[in-house]
Amino acid sequence: MAWKVCKRGFIVVGFLLAGCAYSFRSGALPPDVRSITVSPIQNEAAIVIPTLAQTLAEALRQKFISQSPLTLTTEKGDLILHGRITDFKVAPVAIQGTQQAAQNRLSITVHIRCVSPRHPELGWEQSFMNFADFPAAQPLAAVQEALISDICDRIAQDVVNKTLSFW
After folding, report:
1. Angstrom distance (rounded) from CA 1 to CA 72
2. Which residue range is the domain that position 91 belongs to?
3. Is residue 100 scored above 80 in pLDDT?
4. What percent of the chain has pLDDT above 90?
5. CA max distance for the chain
6. What is the pLDDT of residues 3-55, one digit of tens each?
7. How many whole angstroms separate alpha carbon 46 and alpha carbon 44?
8. Is the residue at 14 inside a domain?
9. 66 within some domain
10. CA nearest to 86, candidates 40, 44, 149
11. Which residue in 22, 27, 58, 161 has the most C-beta neighbors within 10 A?
12. Mind giving me the DSSP string for the chain?
């Protein structure tokens, strides 16, 4: 008799816990989504660095090649990424006692839109921002290429994560 009461209690608790569970969409892309196209990135920032758009596009391509089952296509992919660089700026982040910056921060903001012609529910639109700090004593020109590469790599990782974990 005690076992039946205990068994019923477990069932009731199980139903209560099931009612509190989170609901996520599938963690996997539909089987017919096999390719991705990374459209040319537009640079709409007030400061235009000529190589930035290409560096970001290449970082996105490399991340999708290495971290996803998707095949990279030049056009008409099952998923299509459109991007635009909306901000590129350098600002002081650590001020010394003499009111001079000890550290500067390079920030890049990108707006990405993902569309799927066959699966509109996979589409999304979001801005991504990332940054890197560097010593104020160093001129930006001396570290710019390495910082841009690092920031673009981190933004690309965020975009891949968003694209592949659509929940």
Report:
1. 63
2. 28-164
3. no
4. 68
5. 80
6. 454 455 444 444 434 443 332 344 578 888 999 999 999 999 999 999 999 99
7. 7
8. no
9. yes
10. 44
11. 58
12. -HHHHHHHHHHHHHHHHHHT------SS--TT--EEEEPPPEE-SSS--TTHHHHHHHHHHHHHHHHSSPEEESS--SEEEEEEEEEEEEEEEEE-TTS-EEEEEEEEEEEEEEE-SS-GGG-EEEEEEEEEEEETTS-HHHHHHHHHHHHHHHHHHHHHHHHH---
Beta-carbon contacts of 66 under 8 Å, excluding residues fewer than 6 positions away, are none
Give the predicted TM-score (pTM) of the model.
Answer: 0.79
For residue 79, give the CATH number of its domain. 3.30.160.150
Q: Tell me if 18 is assigned to some domain.
A: no
> Which pair of structure tokens corresponds to residue 42?
């537009």
Give the span between the Cα atoms of 61 and 76, in whole angstroms: 15
- Specify the residue for token string 């699966």: 119
Residues sharing a CB contact under 8 Å with residue 82, sequence separation 6 or more, in sequence order: 39, 112, 113, 114, 115
Q: 91: closest CA among 131, 142, 55?
A: 131
Number of independent structural domains in the chain? 1
